[in-house]
Model the fold of this input.
Amino acid sequence: MPAACFVVRATVPDPTKREAFDSWYSREHLPDALKSFGAAKAWRYWSASDSSQHVAMYQFPDKAALDRATEGPEMKRLVADFNRDWPDVTRTREVLVLAEELVA
Done:
C-alpha cells in the first residue's frame, strides 16, 4: 500500500500574529498532532509566494492509517484546540496518496 499524507493549509491573514502562530504550532500543535495521529512523520512550511499561507503535512504508511487517525476522537480534539487558540485562522484539509516516487 502506498504512503499517504494529510495536509492542512492555514491562512494567517494578520502579519502581526504570524510569529505567535509559528511558535504555537512548533511547540504545541505539531508535536501533539504527530503523537495523537500516530503519524510516521510531520513537517510544515510557510509559503514563500504568500506569507499568510502555512502548510503542515503528516505522513502515514497508508490511507487506512490516515483514515483511522483523522476519523477518530483525537482529530476532533485537535480541531477544537486549534479553533480555541486561533479562531481567525481558516484551514483546508487534503488527503494525498502516493502515486509514484523517484529517488536520484
